[in-house]
Predict the structure.
Amino acid sequence: MNPAIPIIAAALAGAPDLPRGAQIDVVAAVIAAEGRERWKYMCAQAQAIRHRGGSAYQRVIEPGQFSCLNGTTPFALVVRMRREVGYDDARVLAKWLVVGAEKPFQGDPVNGATHFHDTSIRTPVGWGPCLAMVGKLKFFKPDK
């Protein structure tokens, strides 16, 4: 049996016990896909994920949280994004989120925000005031 098959199956199921390297790959793929190859976007998104607390991997695979996962699986996104410009940079950020590597940027570009969206869509009800703008991304901390 191919040794990657159990890891792939676990990723498809969103298993919490996925090996750290695979968790880093999934988180990096989400950051790269959402960040559109721009370092400042990816840093801001990584910081917002960090502000959500808990496992970065679990946060990014929660249904409906990241549009890049709509209609695909975490593993399929990794396969697609590994070839894209920006994936290696996103992996640096994912290592910070998943295993606590050194933070690769300074400060908090999102002022405590936990969620974001592109300015091309309307702000969801209950998201409260915009805490930061990074390029075309608006960052919020939704009302509880």
The beta strands are 115-118, 132-134, 137-140. The chain has a mean pLDDT of 89. The radius of gyration is 15 Å.
